[in-house]
Amino acid sequence: xxxxxxxxxxxxDPHHHLWTADDQGDTPGAxxxxxxxxxxxxxxxxxxxxxxxxxxxxxxxxPAHLRPVGxxxxxxxxxxxxESSPGPTIAAIVAHADLTLPLDQLDEVLDAHTTAAGGRLRxxxxxxxxxxxxxxxxSPGDAAPHLAADPDFRRxxxxxxxxxxxxxxxxxxxxxxxxxxxxRAEPGTTMVFDHFGTPLGVGPWAGRQDEVFAxxxxxxxxxxxxxxxxxKLGGLAMPDNxxxxxxxxxSRPDVATFVAAQARWYHTAIDAFGPARCMFESNxxxxxxxxxxxxxxxxxxxxxARYTAAEQTALFSATAMSTYRL
Length: 326
Description:
Elements: E1 10-16, H1 33-40, E2 45-52, H2 69-83, E3 89-95, H3 103-117, E4 121-125, H4 151-162, E5 167-169, H5 176-185, E6 191-193, H6 209-224, E7 229-233, H7 255-273, E8 278-280, H8 293-304, H9 309-323
Parallel strand pairs: 1-2, 2-3, 3-4, 4-5, 5-6, 6-7, 7-8
Helix pairs in contact: 2-3, 5-6, 6-7, 7-8
């Protein structure tokens, strides 16, 4: 276990998942409060976390549009357990709703999530990720192609803004411009740009990281010009990113290896958005396939050392707290 850098710094981890052994997660086995706290307990001072939807524990009966509420009920129960035992708490929930629903049905879903979350609902994620034709991915998105341009979807995104809820996206780098068009079209809704837009490094993009990075830089510059967009910085160690660290234990990076491979993505995003609109995230347990929790946050702290004390506070806790109203 590496020595923890800046161990007293408060961290709000704004992106993790939970699932049971029966759920279809990106890694096998259950990931519940004990597993989460085992990772968090590696030495960093994580005080609060945020659960983000992942398709776990949906209701199996009742109206289809309300079935995602089962996941919120599940996450809220784990959050309550975190509040009644020593350790960091799961302070907020980002749930799933089909944003193409008619507004009366969408309000029914949002109201049900609000009740089920017990005061913890802080956003909605309806993924834009759509698998490019012929590409085999570890985490294949199943969204309809060009969902971000669907008028019904945009109506739903706008309605989230009316209700004071952020919209959260997960998509691939080839869809960054679609997300940009959405952000420009609905400026009244705060939008969270997850995982750097998942730059792909497998399939047709294997061995083309510099080319992907160059185009991604242009996309990030354009996105940062939208004041309603904030960026989550993490989720860049997934198998689909192509770094290869998930292959076996001997491939897992230490801090120096991680920083050398990924710092340019982080610094480009931070310099474009500004620290006040960026937040580090773990994306555990998905990124756990490739990197350990203590190494990941040590790498974040190493990359953040160039910024002022106030800017580091934003990156590690304050941006997450303001975005999710903690």
